[in-house]
Amino acid sequence: MRDDRDDPFGDIFEEIERMMSEMTGAGAGGDAGFAGETHVSVYEEGDTLRVVADLPGVDKEGIDLQCDGTVLTISAEGEGRRFDERVRLPVRVDEHSASASFNNGVLEVTFDAVEPSADIDVE
Q1: Which alpha helices (H) appear in 1-109, and where do they start and end?
Q2: 52: buried, middle or exposed (CB in 10 Å: 19+, 13-18, 0-12)?
Q3: Each residue of 82-121: b (16+ CB within 10 Å) or e?
């Protein structure tokens, strides 16, 4: 029979667990939010920009999207958790061209990229 008091790594593992709980908010008695459960990827595909976000435990009705042409703000709420992410887009987009779908916890938003500004020659 092993005595836990003889475990030389016990204190280290307890400290790691405490630090992880603080980082995710789980140890504070509060809500941990989505913490490491979410992932957002941005893909440039020719004249189209596609943003894909994993939102586990969220219903479609709990998602709010806002875009100003350079930043996409994703707010989502579900199962007692809240997620707010501001995604800086790598190119300017036409926010009015946006289309979004949500299936099995995966949000996909597509935009038409805007042509870069034209150079103006000074004569």
Answers
A1: 10-24
A2: middle
A3: ebeeebebeebbebeebeeebeeeebebbbebbeeeeeee
Residue pair 111/49 in contact (Cβ under 8 Å)? The answer is: yes
For 25-30, the CB contacts below 8 A with 24+ separation are none
Q: How far apart, in whole angstroms, are the C-alpha atoms of residue 38 and residue 29? A: 21
pLDDT digits (tens, 9 = 90+) for 74-98: 999 887 788 889 999 999 999 999 9
- Among the listed residues 35, 39, 51, 47, the one whose alpha carbon sits nearest the alpha carbon of residue 101: 51
Q: Give the model confidence (pLDDT) of 96-116 as tens digits.
A: 999 999 999 999 999 999 987
Rounded distance, CA 31 to CA 113, Å? Answer: 37
Q: How far apart (Å, rounded) are the C-alpha atoms in residues 87 and 67?
A: 9
Burial class (CB in 10 A: 0-12, 13-18, 19+), 42: middle
